[in-house]
Amino acid sequence: MSQDIIQQYFDAFNAGDTRAMLALVSDDVQHFVNQGDLRKGRAKLAEFCSHMGVSYREELHDMVIFISPDGKRAAAEFTVHGEYLKTDPGLPEAKGQHYCLPAGSFFTLSDTKITRITTYYNLQDWIAQVSK
């Protein structure tokens, strides 16, 4: 079950289906973004996804999902293939640059929902790629 939830989450991400992603998280989900602030709740995650959908087009490849023996925690390693579409405040100017970088996410799960998402990637690597 846990593996299925995580796979469904990433399948929805790759399809650009925010509604399906949000259906897999708890109302009080905690979303920790790489070098960013904690977002609490499904509504804050929805806002984040909306912003990301305007500024970036991303697909995740080479996905490997790991589940703890008790099914309450999961991790995923993947490669982000993206295009920088609209300038994000405080970051380099967007000009349709393409990037590719390794990343990972960590999850806490209840019986049927994701309750925590933490994502990490090398921001300096991303900045170097889009600054060329």
Structure explained in plain terms:
It is a single chain. The chain has helices spanning 2-15, 18-23, 42-55, 123-130; strands at 25-32, 38-40, 56-67, 73-84, 98-109, 114-121. It has one domain: Nuclear Transport Factor 2, Chain: A. The chain has 132 residues and is α+β, with helices and mostly antiparallel strands. It has four helices and six strands. The termini are far apart.
Summarize the structure.
With 132 residues, this protein is of the alpha+beta class. The chain has helices at 2-15, 18-23, 42-55, 123-130, and strands at residues 25-32, 38-40, 56-67, 73-84, 98-109, 114-121.
What does the secondary structure layout of this molecule look like, with pairings?
Layout: H1 2-15, H2 18-23, E1 25-32, E2 38-40, H3 42-55, E3 56-67, E4 73-84, E5 98-109, E6 114-121, H4 123-130
Parallel strand pairs: 1-6
Antiparallel strand pairs: 1-2, 3-4, 4-5, 5-6
